[in-house]
Amino acid sequence: METSQPPAQQSPPAPAEPSGGGESTATVLTALAANLAIAVAKLVGGLVSGSSAMFAEAAHSVADTMNEVFLLRSLRASRRPADAHHPFGYGKTRFFWSLLAALGIFVAGSLFSIVDGIRSILGGEGESGGYLVAYVVLAVSVLAEGTSLVKAVRQVRGEAQAHGRTFRRELQLSSDPTVKTVVAEDSAAVLGLGLAATGLALHQLTGHSWWDGLAAVLIGLVLAVVAAVLGWENANLLIGETARAELVVGCYDAIAEVPGIERVIELLTMHLGPDEVLLAARVDLEDSLPAGRIEDLSTAVETQLRERWPEVTQVFLDPTRGQGETAARTRAYIDQLRAEV
Hints:
Elements: H1 22-49, H2 52-78, H3 93-123, H4 131-163, H5 167-173, H6 177-206, H7 210-238, H8 245-256, E1 261-273, E2 276-285, H9 294-308, E3 312-319, H10 324-340
Parallel strand pairs: 2-3
Antiparallel strand pairs: 1-2
Helix pairs in contact: 1-2, 1-4, 1-6, 2-3, 2-6, 2-7, 3-7, 4-5, 4-6, 6-7, 8-10
């Protein structure tokens, strides 16, 4: 149904609320302390043993330490309130700094590990020793990295329970790049420590240093995969990824059920931050709706959406003439999302 009513006023942008980052900050600080101590220990172990895998792990921990600094910076910057130059707030700075963290994992961790591993493989036998020191460092590192990983996993599990999702589903759908980065880093760290220990043991048993170099290369490849995954996810969020499927479907249904709205023509969402979503909808109003009620309807829709989904911080409602093709395409998209929920 088409409407010739004047358009409803856009809801005024509300000040962006700071994202709740208390638990995320504690998670990052735990990871920072662990990685800083481990980086020094691994470097000492590498110098004593001459192990390429130990040097690769030291580079890994240095990269992780730098990344935690980036993440702390992102948590602080994202809490700045909206201003005239950034009317939607600074929530996306979390995605920017997390993207830099992913690049740090690749450059400082992955490339160094691969290059040093190849050098060890091609360089033949070198000086080796101090195996006991290296093993002790690896064991302590596993405990420290495991502690950090457990804290991050607990946070994800808590958020999964709050959202009614499985741990894996929460990790896939979460828009919080901070905790996802810590989980990915610590998981890669534990795997890398296992590879380093294996390479070191085979080097000791066989006397062939290329086992150690191979372990370093594998560590670098693990870091490259982690960096690629985190970089891709944060890049998508930074350029404007849509909200999660259940929120989009729920908002569509809620708007469509409002008295006075004939149908939803188009619904667009975008993450403004980990806990902030912008929603814009074009709707076809009933012909019988008085012009004086359009503003009340717009306010009612905004209030209802924000009460049910607090992360929807910006709502824009645009009454427009019926567009059957666009409305049908939107409906098909919503049905597709509904099947995924």
